[in-house]
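Input record, target 12 of the design panel.
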C-alpha cells in the first residue's frame, strides 16, 4: 500500500485494465490484485523475496499475503484525498508478473476475489452502540425470530 503525495498521477481502473502486460491483474475494491499459484509456502516466500528485490518496489509498498498454495499481491495508493491506482502501479505490476514468470510461477486471475460488507443505518448511534461500525445513512432492518 502506498501512502503517496498528491502529485502522483492518478489513473482509473479502466486505464489499468486496458494496459498491455497486465493480464495477470484485476482491479477490485482494494486496488489492483494478482494471485500467483506457488504450490508451496517456500516458493511463495521466494516470490515475495524476489518482489522485494525489484527496484522501486519498496517505495510503492505492495501488500502481500502468503499462503501455502499461493501469494496475493495488492497495489493501492492511499492519501488524504485519494484511494486508488497511479501510473507507478502499472510498471510495478508488470515487473511483479515478470518476476513470477522468471521463477516459473503462474498467475491465476480467476482466483482474485473480494468481499465487501457495509452496514448502513439511519440511526447510526444505535448501530455503533452495538459495536458494529457503520455509515449513518440509509436504512437498517432488524430481523426477529419467534
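The sequence produced for target 12 reads:
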Amino acid at each position: 500500500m502506498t501512502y503517496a503525495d498528491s502529485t502522483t498521477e492518478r489513473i482509473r481502473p479502466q486505464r489499468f485494465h486496458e494496459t498491455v502486460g497486465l493480464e495477470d491483474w484485476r482491479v477490485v475494491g482494494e486496488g489492483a490484485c494478482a494471485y500467483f499459484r506457488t504450490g508451496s509456502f517456500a516458493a511463495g516466500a521466494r516470490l515475495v523475496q524476489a518482489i522485494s528485490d525489484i527496484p522501486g518496489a519498496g517505495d510503492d509498498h505492495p501488500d502481500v499475503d502468503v499462503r501455502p498454495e499461493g501469494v496475493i499481491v495488492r497495489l493501492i495508493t492511499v492519501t488524504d484525498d485519494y484511494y486508488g491506482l497511479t501510473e507507478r502501479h502499472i510498471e510495478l505490476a508488470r515487473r511483479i508478473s515478470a518476476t513470477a514468470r522468471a521463477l516459473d510461477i503462474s498467475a491465476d486471475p480467476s482466483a482474485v476475489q473480494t468481499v465487501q460488507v457495509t452496514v448502513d443505518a439511519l440511526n447510526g448511534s444505535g448501530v455503533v452502540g452495538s459495536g458494529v461500525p457503520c455509515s449513518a445513512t440509509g436504512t437498517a432492518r432488524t430481523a426477529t425470530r419467534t
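The helical segments are 13-18, 41-52, 57-60, 87-102, 124-128.
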